[in-house]
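hey so i finally got around to running both of the ones u sent me last week. sorry it took forever, my laptop kept dying halfway thru and i had to restart like 3 times lol. anyway pasting them below in the order u listed, first the sequence line then the structure token line for each. didnt double check formatting much so if smth looks off just lmk and ill redo it

first one:
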Amino acid sequence: MTVKIITDSCCDIPLDLANELNITIVPVHIHFGTKDYLDGIDIIPNEFFKMIASSESFPTTSQPSVGQFIEEFKNSDNPDGILSLHVSSKVSGTFNAAKQASDQSNLSGPINIIDSLQVSITQGFAVMRAAAAAAAGKNLHEVSNIVQETCNRATMFGLIDTVDYLVKGGRLSKTAGLIGSLLNIKPIIVTRNGEVVQYAKTRSF
């Protein structure tokens, strides 16, 4: 056996790659109106973007349930242990749900729940490094140290192509959104201390 790696779908690792690397992904919930979808299972990114473009309602998300985590932890229980690495606790309740589940699972092997303080691909990169370390035979303590170092050094930058969805989601006022669209402003965001914040504003013509 090797250390088992578990994460959530905020890591943005494709399922086929996750399966190849022996990573278990617990899906977050995406809500469109009254419908609940499991991220990466009931709905994939291309479908999500089509729905968000055509839907009158704006989607919301919620963390996996404690029960989802308990099921995965019990399925992955082994003497070498489990490392469960999750999206920043400052943007989601996922880490707290995983922590509660670990306290309730009564596992025979050790488990370490880590708050990555990262989102998206920087979280995913740390998860893939964890999987590589586990596959190389590193123990739980060693894998945890590699993950923590990776998370501490990582920073993600992103360019928001349109401010329309910031307005729909209530992150930006309609007036500011209109001005942003007219001036073709594209915000650059960055992860900082576990939060996603604005880094700069650029204009594209």
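and the second one:
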Amino acid sequence: MKKIYLVLFMVFISLNLMACGAKNSPVEPVSVSIATLKGPTSIGMIKLIDDSSSIDSDNASVSMEVIPSPDLLVPRLLNEELDIAAVPVNVASKVYNLTKGKYELAVINTLGVLYIVSADKSINSLDDLKGQTIYCGTPGATPDFILKNLMNKNNLKPDEDILIDYSLNNSELAQAVIGGDIQYAILPEPFATMVSMKNKDIKRCINIQEEWNKVEESAEIIMGAIVVKKEFRENNTEFMNKFLKEYEKSVSWVNDNPVEAGKLLEQHEILPSSKIAELSIPNCNVVYIDAQSKKDEILNFLKILYDFDVKSVGGKLPDENFFMEK
């Protein structure tokens, strides 16, 4: 009988030791890969880029990366190397379609950032540009489609009533505007701020976002967004909730503290100088908007791009599953 009790006692001790060992075993932290782009799409994330300690934890090891252009970022998403990324909203649609729904749209982070700039003080509307040539950085890109859509809605025919010249990229275009070599250009931030800083005669003649509001039911131009890998989000809900909360705080901090944010944006080479960054932030429409709350507006905006070029959104419009569940 004593032997039986001894055996039972040993089994009890062993089970307790195993349980304690299981409780005390360190949990392997999940590696979280976050990427963003140079330019306005990254502005709202700068606080986290500078210091990710608020989202780092014993359960998560976070790496933050700033990538120079969408051409370098998109392949990383298509290969599913990234868990979270800040991208143009049409790129979000492309990635969703090309990965068959493996990435979701979580947050809108940037609205309209486009301006028509000129030293010509008589220009106050698109109609004032009739008979003129306006320079646009890249044919077949979102700014091109936005400009053409506004022309169409104002009964102006692109390349007839207003000529569009694509011979210069945005950097070259900014220098040409500063030097007075061209009169009219559509530029995104921070280029619009840069040209007005370096040539005091240059002004933002037309705010493209304001013109859009006059003619479109989807009242906002939706430029930037946060995408999340669906599988990662499903397996790491606690981290995702924490990330989104801290990201929203970062957006608020940037808008409230443009001087300090500008220094960080220069330090991390997201914008060319702290002064340009500081002055451009109020014109960059940096926001935090839950994508679910703006589904119709997002799809309407993507439909406009789709009507110009189906490839711009990945061959088709995304379905309802494009929007991240809360």
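quick thing i noticed on the 2nd:
Residues 36 and 42 are 6 Å apart (CA to CA).
anyway thats it, ttyl
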